[in-house]
Amino acid sequence: MNDTAVLQIGMDALWLSVKLGAPILLVGLAIGVFIGLLQAVTQVQEVTMTFVPKFIGVIVVFALAGNWMLQEIISFTNALFASIPSLLS
Questions:
Q1: 27 CB neighbour count, 10 Å cutoff
Q2: In three state form, how does the secondary structure of the chain look?
Q3: Rounded CA gap, 58 and 29, in Å?
Q4: How many helices (H) and strands (E) does the chain have?
Q5: Which among 58, 67, 51, 75 has a CA at the least distance from the CA of 21?
Q6: From CA 26, how far away is CA 12, in angstroms rounded?
Q7: Are 12 and 78 in contact (CB under 8 A)?
Q8: pTM for the whole thing?
Q9: How far apart are CA 10 and CA 50, in angstroms?
Q10: Looking at residue 47, what DSSP letter applies?
Q11: Per-position pLDDT tens, the chain of length 89
């Protein structure tokens, strides 16, 4: 195993984590900005007003994109296991 293979595996793993985390983070960001604007306009500073909608949004993202996320993880793992013989030589 050479250093190029290790770096490639690391870069692929980081790219996978970015792809899987982006939908969740973007939904949380969008909901947080919307609720922040709503709180600024109404001057209601309630902590649960930000937590509950973000929590529901993340649950919805997992329900809609969970299958895709799982398939991405499975394909990455299968590709990694398939490359083990070539990495050992």
A1: 19
A2: CCHHHHHHHHHHHHHHHHHHHHHHHHHHHHHHHHHHHHHHHHCCCCCHHHHHHHHHHHHHHHHHHHHHHHHHHHHHHHHHHHCHHHHHC
A3: 11
A4: 3, 0
A5: 58
A6: 21
A7: no
A8: 0.81
A9: 35
A10: S
A11: 788 989 999 999 999 999 999 999 999 999 999 999 998 898 888 877 888 999 999 999 999 999 999 999 999 999 999 999 988 87
Rg for the chain, CA atoms, rounded = 19
| Interior angle at CA 60, CA 30 and CA 57, nearest 5 | 30
Question: One-letter amino acid identity for 6?
Answer: V
- Residue 3 near residue 66, CB atoms below 8 Å: no
CB 58 within 8 A of CB 24: yes
Q: Which tokens in the block code for residue 51?
A: 């937590």
